[in-house]
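Case study B.
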Amino acid sequence: MKYLFGIDIGGTNIKFGLLNIDGKILLNESIKTNSEAGYDDCFSRIAEEIEKMRVEKNIDKSDILGVGMGIPGPVLHQEIVSFFANFPWEGNLNVARILGEKTGYRVKVDNDVNVITLGEVWQGSAVGYSDVIGMALGTGIGGGIVADGKLVGGAKGAGGEIGHMTIVPNGKLCGCGKKGCFEAYVSATGIEREAESRLAVNKNNKLWDIISKKEGQKVEAKDVFDAAKSGDEFSLDIVDYTTEYIAHGLSILLHVTNPEVVVIGGGVALAGDILFDGIAAKIKKYSLPVCMDGLQILPAKLGNEAGIVGAAALLLN
Amino acid sequence: MKYLFGIDIGGTNIKFGLLNIDGKILLNESIKTNSEAGYDDCFSRIAEEIEKMRVEKNIDKSDILGVGMGIPGPVLHQEIVSFFANFPWEGNLNVARILGEKTGYRVKVDNDVNVITLGEVWQGSAVGYSDVIGMALGTGIGGGIVADGKLVGGAKGAGGEIGHMTIVPNGKLCGCGKKGCFEAYVSATGIEREAESRLAVNKNNKLWDIISKKEGQKVEAKDVFDAAKSGDEFSLDIVDYTTEYIAHGLSILLHVTNPEVVVIGGGVALAGDILFDGIAAKIKKYSLPVCMDGLQILPAKLGNEAGIVGAAALLLN
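Model:
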């Protein structure tokens, strides 16, 4: 049997998985990222953790196929991180080479949402499909494009940066500095901004009943979906507004790479049917019939393990 | 030396090229499509023409690597035409198999704009690049997406159907029946509709001076660019409006597949600098810096021969 390591590195934690070639997770670990100590320190600790896990499972070094890693930010040729979205490290760092030297294994690195998408193709909602789009609806929006079974990385590793497609020219200001980006409308942050903006002029609704009881009175996207599910018209209209933009943005992608499956994950996707039914009802009017033919729009399956499973999948892609 | 046939089949004419493996066209021919006689008749005449050309150049059959063909409409797996955009033939036809049987050669078929894009990568403006988007701005808009050197066909052959991305929800009616499609705004037809709509309320401009002298008084996109180049403010504003939408639509694509080169061809692209300068000036505000990094937006180079050169290139892709 051959084995793979999958690593999901985030701003706070680094998650590790030791998987067999069939995609079964044999061992899960997590350490603090502690990125302020520098990348060299961080990658040394990653190498130590990997070695510890290998010894714990008594696996021969020659049976380890390699180490895959998902990281936020654009990644070039599955090696070089152009810039680090969440770490105080200088960009253009050849993470694959550095970690390869420290571990002695083959290392492949890719953008975190690319990696998650690959995980869904290997072990999740998109098993058996070769034209897939993954979309993570979280604080921001990330995308992963799989065309004919391969990740679309692009010239500078920015393939799948769908959160920053302009869908409303001169629209809402986005955290990136541009206006009208997809993620300014339909990420958790986007939904919360819209809800807060509406609550400023209308507090006569169930959403405000929920929010006003919370410390800090801060809206979370989940509150909006919860209130909508309980029948609050005010919140239902925000969900309608959100699913309209998701449908519009997704439909654009259908005409670029013509996927057979779209997998939606991230915190916002946990809203479930109210979200997916809305998208399904609205996307047709934006899309050519040939692009809708056989199309499935599915929730992600792998949840918290998507990052490590997908990272391991890099070695097989 | 090995040789390739490239075929560009359109509603009126079928163009043939016999090329050597270096991309040099040794012989050019053209016959009428005459599609009403049925596909079997048409493909038989294609096979005859190919044989005639081979004999004329005295090339051994074993030195022919195959036949590539570009055709309007979505094509599945470079074999099956899902539906014929310009011919009265039933869809889901395995053109590669039929023409393969009639000629005895390996045959690959793809969408005409995919093929043109591949031609530009092989012999035109995008030589040496592996992440490329081709856009044909003609009567409609077609796109070809090359990612890591390979054409993105998609699940149903609709990869690159960028003319039908919705860029203005509930916008101008498109020929496809949807509203707000990219091509409703920036194709030659789109430009002409916009100009005619504006001329209906304002005839005090150079564009009207040109149009009013023409028989039928029908606007052509070229008239708009010509009047703009001569300084007509009315026409300059239409060009501004058009390049704004082209920049917006193209910028979306930059965030999906992150190309290093965008090649723009088709009749509208002949407008030259006034078009390309406008796009270059406007696209930045819609695009992340990482997507603009090193990006080139170039006019297509191959012109009328793009179809046959690109079709031949299919056999090398």
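Chain A touches chain B through 48 residues (CB under 8 Å). The remaining cases will be described in the next quarterly update.
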